[in-house]
């Protein structure tokens, strides 16, 4: 049905982040299902090589999720009770949950005060005062795909390690000689800093391939290994891979495919987890990676269209996406409402839902979540993260949207802002 102007009265709903599953993805999954090998095997190995080439690092390890990989990395680095890991308050719970799982303490960083902000990312100036002899890792998050300048952070951490004399009995920690820079790059595959792709700057960068991410394998993740000289990336890959599979010295593929006597034999050197990637997931990932350049270009063009359509609307702040040698992966498009409009943030989201437009909020800061509040984390310690959260709306951005959809979201948002604007008559 069409209105008098010819626009459909009931246009198609715009989902928040539906996965893009094309025929090539289905064919690749079918090929693996029919191949006789469905768990970690040749497809996963190929995906790892292709991701290493894409991110420009010597080795990548795939796993069952960001969470599984980040957890085994903290174990590998010897993070445990009494240790601290510095990370943002403004992030998804996974970033901090993996630290709690190790019995270590997440040290939450607030966002910087207004005027010194770097998108929704924490800044080095906010991190530095929190470093102590208990700090074993710093875990910044590239919120929405806007990358942290990790090369610079690594040098600052090395400088801090030299000045403060970082010492440790743990062999991997003492080899690094400073806290680990573990990038939560869950949102940032394909983001760039000074011409290099995210993954090549931090010591270890972990990506998520969860269903809503830019590149999805339904569930899954990968770690790009870019540790400094002195670390052999292939050896680190081997150690982390074992930790993703109970600590076994051989995975299923090498046990079954190797010929000859005793190929089944393996040892367990330390109790690991079970968070390996299957070849079915890897097959999805390989297809998505092959077309990722086009997908990313599409995201950039949608985000450009949002910038253009929303820049003239008063009362909203647009996300930081480009500049200072950095380019976002445009995973999320998070707008921030003015203080007056943010009182009606949830009403505005409901108005958009009524217009068939799904939105979301990234993220409630950790102290607002019961598990963290009950562990003594307080919202009053992170006021800027809380203010950003109350003002934030994530607008839909994904491969199935068109520029016309962006214009529809922008005009529905403008109407909602007008209808909830405080009236001059009071
Ligand atoms: C910032 C951030 N870190 C970590 C994760 C966890 O990723 P996964 O679901 O792959 O474990 C997510 C997932 O949404 C995330 O948004």
Describe the model.
With 426 residues, this protein is α/β, with parallel strands linked by helices. It has two domains: 23-290, Type I PLP-dependent aspartate aminotransferase-like (Major domain) (Aspartate Aminotransferase, domain 2), CATH 3.40.640.10; 292-419, Alpha-Beta Complex (Aspartate Aminotransferase, domain 1). The chain is 38% helix and 12% strand. It has helices at residues 23-35, 42-55, 66-76, 93-101, 124-127, 150-164, 171-176, 233-243, 252-257, 279-290, 292-310, 339-342, 345-354, 370-373, 383-391, 403-419, and strands at 59-63, 84-88, 105-109, 135-138, 180-184, 192-193, 196-197, 204-208, 221-225, 316-317, 322-323, 326-327, 333-337, 392-395. A seven-stranded mixed β-sheet has the order 1-9-8-5-4-2-3, with helices on both faces. Strands 7-6-12-11 form a four-stranded antiparallel β-sheet, with no helix packed on it. Helix 3 (66-76) packs parallel to helix 4 (93-101) and helix 13 (345-354) crosses helix 16 (403-419). The longest helix is centred in the last third of the chain and has 19 residues, at 292-310. The protein is globular, with a radius of gyration of 23 Å. The model has no long low-confidence stretch (mean pLDDT 94). The chain binds pyridoxal-5'-phosphate. Residues 65-67, 91-92, 94-95, 141, 184, 186-187, 208, 210, 221 line the site of pyridoxal-5'-phosphate.
């Amino acid at each position: 049905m069409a209105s008098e102007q010819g626009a459909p009265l009931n246009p198609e709903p715009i989902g928040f982040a539906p996965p893009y599953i094309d025929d090539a993805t289905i064919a690749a999954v079918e090929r693996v299902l029919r191949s006789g090998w469905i768990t970690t095997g040749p497809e996963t190995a190929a995906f790892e090589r292709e991701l290493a080439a894409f991110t420009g690092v010597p080795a990548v390890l795939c796993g069952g999720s960001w969470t599984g990989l980040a957890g085994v990395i903290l174990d590998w680095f010897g993070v445990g009770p009494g240790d601290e890991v510095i990370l943002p308050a403004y992030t998804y719970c996974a970033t901090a949950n993996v630290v709690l799982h190790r019995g270590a303490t997440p040290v939450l960083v607030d966002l910087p005060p207004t005027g010194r902000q770097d998108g929704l990312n924490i800044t080095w100036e906010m991190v530095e005062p929190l470093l102590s002899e208990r700090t074993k890792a710093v875990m910044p998050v590239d919120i929405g795909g806007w990358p942290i300048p990790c090369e610079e952070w690594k040098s600052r951490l090395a400088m801090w390690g030299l000045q403060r004399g970082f010492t440790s009995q743990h062999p991997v920690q003492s080899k690094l000689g400073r806290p680990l820079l573990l990038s939560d790059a869950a949102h940032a595959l394909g983001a760039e800093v000074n011409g290099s792709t995210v993954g090549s700057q931090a010591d270890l960068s972990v990506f998520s391939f969860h269903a809503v991410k830019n590149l999805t394998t339904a569930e899954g993740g990968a770690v790009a290994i870019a540790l400094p000289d002195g670390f052999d990336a292939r050896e680190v890959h081997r150690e982390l891979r074992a930790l993703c599979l109970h600590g076994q010295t051989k995975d299923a593929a090498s046990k079954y495919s190797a010929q000859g006597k005793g190929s089944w034999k393996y040892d367990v050197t330390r109790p690991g987890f079970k968070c390996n990637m299957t070849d079915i997931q890897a097959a999805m990932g390989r297809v998505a990676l092959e077309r990722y350049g086009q997908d990313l270009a599409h995201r950039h063009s949608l985000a450009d269209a949002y910038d253009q359509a929303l820049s003239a609307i008063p009362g909203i702040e647009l996300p930081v996406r480009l500049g200072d040698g950095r380019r976002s992966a445009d995973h999320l498009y998070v707008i921030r409402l003015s203080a007056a409009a943010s009182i009606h943030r949830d009403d505005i989201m409901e108005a958009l839902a009524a217009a068939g437009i799904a939105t979301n909020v990234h993220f409630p800061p950790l102290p607002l979540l019961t598990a963290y509040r009950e562990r003594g984390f307080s919202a009053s310690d992170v006021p800027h993260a809380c203010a950003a959260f109350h003002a934030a709306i994530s607008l839909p951005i994904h491969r199935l949207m068109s520029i016309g959809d962006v214009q529809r979201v922008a005009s529905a948002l403008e109407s909602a802002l007008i209808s909830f604007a405080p009236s001059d008559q009071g």
